[in-house]
Amino acid sequence: MQPTNRQSSRPLPPLTIGLWTASLLIAAALTGYFGLYAAGYLVPAACLLLQATLLFSGRGKTAFVTIMALNQISGLVLVLVLAFGDALGGRKLDVSAVALLVNLATGGPLMGLLSLPLFGALRFSRSLAGWFGARRSPTLNEALSI
């Protein structure tokens, strides 16, 4: 049986994509395991699973990068407010709580650890940066053009 055009146009993921996806899945499993004991870690586990899915499918680069950027920014705000936020007075705990909730909603501490090398790989690795472009669906103009 001949493969259809849709099946043959899907490139296989490079080894680096498989390794990054596996590391995100392992991080999701570890965070999910902690979520069995503290239910607040189930949300970061789901976000890590979403990131692994986005990476493996090669779609949603904007969402993939945005989640990582929000995680890094919220983690930085959390650390800076806790360390140097005495000028905030009573609002210090409110700001740090919001930063913690945003950080957990965007993958938690393991996403923070993985996102720094992922940002570098997206910037400097041809295979990772090109993976999202290779999986792009044709636009309506491209599909209708002859």
What can you see in these coordinates?
This protein is mostly helical. It has one domain (15-134). It is built from eight helices and no strands.
Give the helices and strands as they follow along the chain: HHHHHHHH
Q: So how many helices?
A: 8
Main sheet summary: none
> What is the end-to-end distance?
28 Å
CA-based shape:
elongated
Question: What structural class do helix, strand and pairing data support?
Answer: mainly alpha
The tally of beta strands, per DSSP, is 0
Number of domains: 1
Low-confidence stretches: none
Radius of gyration: 19 Å
**Helix amount, in percent?**
over 70%
Please, what is the average pLDDT? 86
Strand content: under 5%
Task: Output the keywords.
mainly alpha; elongated; 0% strand; 8 helices; 146 residues; 75% helix
Compact description:
By secondary structure, this protein is mainly α. It is built from eight helices and no strands.
Layout of secondary structure:
Blueprint: H1 5-8, H2 15-35, H3 42-57, H4 61-84, H5 92-105, H6 108-124, H7 126-134, H8 140-144
Helix pairs in contact: 2-3, 2-6, 4-5, 4-6
